[in-house]
Amino acid sequence: MGRRLFLRHLAEVKHPDAVAGIHAVQSPEEGVVACRLICSQPENKLPIDVDIQMCATDLDEYPDGNSFVLFTNDESLSGIIPETLQDLSNNTHGQLLSSVLETISQRLTQVITCGLAKNLHNDIQSEEPDFEFEEDSDIDFGFSAPPRNSTSEARAALRSQSSPSHSTGQDRLRADVKAAKQAGFRIGVLGNLATCGILCISIRVSKLGLSEEAMQAWNLPRKHYLLLMIAFPEGYRDITLVKEDPSLSGLTQMRVALCNHYKPKLSAVLPLFKALRFELEPDILQSGKGPESTLESLFIDKPLNHLLRESFPQIVKARLSHDLSWFGAETYIQARQAAVSKDELENMRIFKVDDMSSCNSFSPIAIADHLAENGVAEVSLPLAAMQFVVRHVTRCREFCLVCHCHIEDKFEALKPYVCSKPLCLYQYMSLGFGPRIEGEIVSQPHVVDLLISFCYFGAQGQRLKDLPVGMSFPVALRPVQGGHNFGSAMPHISQFGRPGPVDTIPTDKVSFKCQWQSNQNTLHVEEEYYRKAQSLRPGSWVFLISDAGTHESHCRVKKIQLPRVELGDEFVLSLRESTLSSNGNQGAAGSSANPTVTGMPSKCYMYEHNFDDLSTAVQHQAIQAILMTLPSVEDMREYLLDRGPNGELKDWTSKVSESALGVLRWIIVSNRSCIMQLNELDGHGCFQTTAAVEDRVGGMDDWIQFRFAQGAPDKENRFIDCMRQETSPTSKYPTIFAWHGSHLSNWHSIIRQGLRFDDIVHGRVYGNGVYFSQYAKVSLNYTAASHPAILSTALNSGWKQSKLCMMNAISLNEVINRPDKFVHTSPHYVVSETDWIQTRYLFVKSSIPVKVPGQPSAVYQQDPSREAYNEHTQVIMIPITALSKSRRPGAKLEVGEAGTPKRNKTVVATDQATAERLEDDANSIASDDDDLALLVPKMVEDCEAEFDKCRDSSSPMASSKAKGKKRTAEKSDDTDFVPGTLDVDGIQFLAPPRDATRASSQALMRSFREALEVQKNTVCSTLGRYIDPNLVNNMYQWIVELHSFPAHLPLSTDMKAVGLTSVVLEMRFASSYPFTPPFIRVVKPRFLPFAQGGGGNVTEGGAMCMEILTNNGWTAAQAIDGLLLQVRMAICDQERPARLAFLGNGANGAPAFEKVTYGIGEAVAAYVRACRNHGWAVPEGFENFLTTELK
């Protein structure tokens, strides 16, 4: 068993991401593991690569009896590394392979990066650090190496110290789960929490109080559940462990996800907890809901799971120790990690702060704080963890997705992002914490096209507020000559639509000169530049420009054989303005205009300069040039669709450079607004409506329309609150709609920072605030593109791969109808209160025609005195869907009171949000019986009451339970066995298990009823077994008598000699029945041991030795009556017959037999030994049979 377990664990740790920092795990020979640790050093030194060898001392006894000898053969390493490995070897006894690797990774990383002490056990005592925090013990909460107890008994001792007794633990578990339920969360259980299971805590998305715009932006279907899964591989752990002993290593883990059911299928959840290595049975793996319950990624699942793993335990410890709020504890932990000395943290008053004052518009469940309302003894760990998750989901835009610090941002973004630290941006991109851009490209290609085009215009006008500094992607540099911008033939357009100055690069930093044969995709490097060209590598990118200035191209290097350089088959080609086709589109890739056969004298600029080192002006030009290398969004979408749901753009190396992919990812993930496309390009070159006509604004037929939302998740609620405060409840026109126009170069920043008035572009003649107009043509004047000549310039200066062919952009916004409180009302609305403004639509003017099949039928009634007009001075029709659902009309069904002769059903008017919430509640998924049983133990008691009723009705006599006395009964035919005469001395009657579930209780009740039915309808001597209903005090413990054995059996002779008429068996069932087998043992009489010639499959301790009673042979479909028949047949085995334990002849010469009953302890021990000898799997939680309470 140990060898097989080792090989299985070896296969698991070979996965590249199994253990952080450990790579290339292999086994060159049996019992030897080789791996590499790659660790970075401080001060930007090269990383250290350590080859590590691990030799197992005893694979047969792995893990409890095995140790590992750790060493390295690399003599070039610092002496502290082999010494550390030697110290670690002394503490590997009884450890799992993964645990040893994790310890190696953690310890050597500390030694390399921090130079900590060498001795693993005495590092704290032997060193005198500069300062020490009071809570240092919680730093490794959940991540330090597992406890180093050398035996399984020691591990059991640790479990008993870190968790309450079985009975107390069950009470605490129920209390903690009940607290989460009462707080408004759904509870689901996978497995058995008492021994090994996963607790699921969830809440339907619609109950989080998020706006419709937030749910759309975050891809949260309202009927789905936000799900927190807490795994307890060694049984439930409560909050006291955080306070007393924060080293939870391997005892619990947490994951978040979305699910269309409150509890997913167990087989779908287990892959999320691979490191914990759950040992569950196949039948249990299939428990839970069916295929309809699927796990889906949460939009911030990676950063949130990282936060739960790395910081949540420390935050909880800080809250419990210092009485801090969530915000105060988070701030304290961040300060502690950045602190240089202990003195910086002496003043705890600075952390006695809260951020709840800004959360008045959030739903109560989103701001509830269980930790603040209860003492440690009453705190529920599952509830505290779920409230922490809800806090970071509903308020995600307030926290950096990498360092999780609180972002002090003037703009209340709708989507989360990172803080201003460049390192956070780099990690955000490299670690994949942002949304998957491939999904955005496939699902909303025109939105991605819009974002790229806005960025291109912003870079062209030098108007990008935030640049992707920190990503360090390479770019090619070339001078800007003749008024042309970086790497492009297009002139620079100022924010007013006129050519403007650019910051040029003073010198021509050419990498090398060459002859460019564009028709053959090759270069011939001039001899004097060989040395520079040798730094080229296959896969790198270069920028080429002919000396004549007629051809430009960004190409991927395919093969290098100097002087010849072969370029990729596909490359981006751009021509000078004079060679552009009449429609302004570029030529096809790889097809130049009559290139010479001998090649064109050209200059090559390698991608060798770090973007972060450039000046701001040149960075704008670099972004513009890089975007010109991107394929069209339509081409990217087709590429991804051809490669299925897991396709990635990074694999399209022939078309998309590393730099272009980095900029594209930054553009998409940095968008902090919700933009939803309402049009699609048809096959005839026209934009047609993809959404329902009811979602489009009528009267804007010439414009491509997008739904547009900005602001924090609670911004809509604040807007509605302000509307109700500032207008009368009976007001017919509480809001008005107005336009806002801005130049195309500004929209990249607007969709990231909102409509702000801290940046003066066109002056503030009418005061400070956001400027709007009820007339579209007035707002279009501020776009500097209202004249045909300027529109043509905008069209020709945009991103050439765009299918939108963008010429202009304008937004439609809803504003609270209180013009008397506006800063100004004529000729513009000037609004200074940003909570009074909600963006609703974004319109893009395109050179491509738009087809509109009709106008919306349900429209919002505008204030007749302040109607919004289109560019042709016609009143627009605003669909009712532009409003939030809480303001749209809806209907609900009400039923008359119960008890009336006729309960009438009435349709009552309400808002759409309420109607949908009531519908969701009505269609809510019912909880499983197992989950209800955990929450409401009375359900199990009801099952037991029904069990008692079944037992009493099947009893041969209406008598009380046996209490050490024999009962009288009629003797059956053809047997000396008399039912109901068992002497129950020596039999321990047990209470039902505290973790009993309704499902298990019902299954046992059904089996009990069937067994009694067979017993009732079968002759006693023929059946050969008897269950006295009065001796079955709970359905999880049955007392069974086997009798009427064939007379020719030695066992029958022995029983007759001693005056016995039956063999008494005890059956104990676990709470996981029928997925695990019962434990069956002989209570009395004692049998002759196998070593002394006994048989009948009865072990020395009295347990039945049968494969069907182990995980290997058991099936949930096994009937109890059939099982008892197999047990009887095993005892009647004639090849190795069973005999009673013979003590010799008595005083009268009669044989004397052992009369002492078997103990439960010796039976359990014998069962485990038998399983090990035969290679059978012991059922999960089998040791609980030793701790079951007496009745």
TrEMBL record:
Per UniProt, which keywords does this protein have?
Answer: Glycosyltransferase, NAD, Nucleotidyltransferase, Transferase
UniProt biased composition (Polar residues): 147-168
Q: Does the keyword Ion transport apply?
A: no
Q: Which is one GO molecular function term here?
A: nucleotidyltransferase activity
Show the segment(s) annotated as Disordered. Answer: 142-173, 950-974
InterPro entries, sorted: ARTD_PARP, Poly(ADP-ribose)pol_cat_dom, UBC, UBQ-conjugating_enzyme/RWD
What are the UBC core domain coordinates in residue numbering? 1002-1177
Looking up PANTHER family in the UniProt record yields: POLY ADP-RIBOSE POLYMERASE FAMILY, MEMBER PARP
According to UniProt, the name of this protein is UBC core domain-containing protein
The species this protein belongs to is Exophiala aquamarina CBS 119918
